[in-house]
Design a protein that fits this description.
Order of helices and strands: HHHHHHHHHHHHHH
Strand content: under 5%
Helix content: over 70%
Shape: globular
Structural class: mainly alpha
Radius of gyration: 23 Å
Largest sheet: none
Number of helices: 14
Length: 336
């Protein structure tokens, strides 16, 4: 009970701090936080497949692009508002994810990863060459911001921050509730041993296609936010290197956890800001981080933090026990 209260208290404290950051930070740092919030939604969607279902997908950056372009086209060419276009973008990405999942989920291990990588590239190349609809390599400009609500002007980064924050919190909470449900436990069972999950009566195909469709819809939702926030998108924002970056965020943070992808996203978005002088070495550094994570931090940053806390707690208990023994020995000598 005390642990639950401490967790709830810590979550409330973090949310309070996040809610006042626009009053404390400059516009550039708010922009970085906004990017983190959007990518947290995207990594949470990928984590459903990689972390909880055990399927290594490279298609999510393509589904992210589908959501971004759907929202951009609806708001610039069809006269839709953001509030109408973002659920449509999520649905379109989800439907496409379902269609892709039908053939892709028949593959396993590295074959699954290769095929999803192929579908991600197909989506990007389609966007690149369908000039009449997507603008081709020039992309789509002047994507409108969401219309004002509750006195918030979303043309301002500081105001858009709250929309992204609320969206990220809701998505993370939704994933948390999903993983705690019967479907979420079935996803974890498939990750641990798909044959055994099938043996105990879990419809593994149904669970995997559900997870892939849902994660695609969340990726599309993140894409819609991305397009509206940046007001410009192009095919160059949805490349293979971005697929690798998203995967690294999940793995380095700690896949199969709620907090891990958030830590990984924050770390890998701030890292380029710290390494601007060697930006051309970004992917080399990312690759090195992945190797180090696999070798020394199999559970990612979150696992490292938990390990440190456990060791510190064990050390404290050991000191307490030794202190108790010393006091008992002193008391015994005094009685003698």
């Amino acid at each position: 009970m005390n642990n639950n209260r401490m967790k709830i208290g810590a979550i409330i404290a973090v949310l309070v701090v996040l809610s006042v950051l626009p009053f404390l930070l400059d516009s550039y740092l708010i922009h970085i936080l906004n990017q983190i919030g959007i990518w947290v939604i995207l990594t949470a969607s990928l984590n459903l497949m990689v972390g909880y279902t055990g399927q290594l997908s490279f298609a999510h950056v393509g589904l992210f692009a589908v959501g971004a372009y759907t929202s951009a086209i609806l708001t610039t060419s069809a006269g839709f508002s953001f509030w109408t276009s973002f659920p449509i973008a999520a649905i379109v990405a989800g439907v496409l994810g379902f269609i892709i999942g039908l053939p892709v989920l028949r593959f396993k291990t590295h074959f699954f990863a290769i095929v999803t990588l192929g579908f991600g590239e197909i989506i990007r190349l389609t966007i690149y060459n369908w000039r009449d609809l997507t603008g081709g390599p020039n992309g789509i400009y002047n994507i409108p911001f969401p219309t004002n609500i509750l006195g918030l002007d979303f043309a301002l980064r500081e105001h858009f921050y709250y929309l992204i924050l609320i969206s990220a919190v809701l998505v993370v909470l939704f994933v948390k509730l999903l993983i705690g449900s019967r479907t979420g436990k079935a996803m974890i069972a498939i990750r641990e041993n798909e044959n055994f999950a099938l043996f105990v009566g879990i419809n593994t195909w149904k669970v995997k296609i559900f997870a892939f469709t849902l994660s695609a819809a969340l990726a599309g939702f993140a894409g819609s936010l991305y397009a509206s926030y940046n007001s410009y998108i192009s095919p160059y924002s949805f490349t293979v290197s971005e697929s690798v970056s998203i995967l690294l965020m999940v793995i380095i943070g700690g896949m199969g956890t709620i907090i891990g992808p958030i830590l990984g996203t924050t770390f890998l978005i701030f890292l380029p800001e710290l390494l601007r002088s060697v930006s051309e070495w970004r992917m080399v550094i990312y690759g090195g981080l992945l190797v180090l994570t696999i070798m020394f931090m199999r559970d990612g940053i979150l696992g490292l933090i938990k390990s440190f806390v456990r060791k510190k707690k064990h050390h404290s208990e050991k000191n307490l026990l030794s202190t108790g023994k010393e006091e008992a020995a002193i008391a015994g000598s005094e009685r003698n």
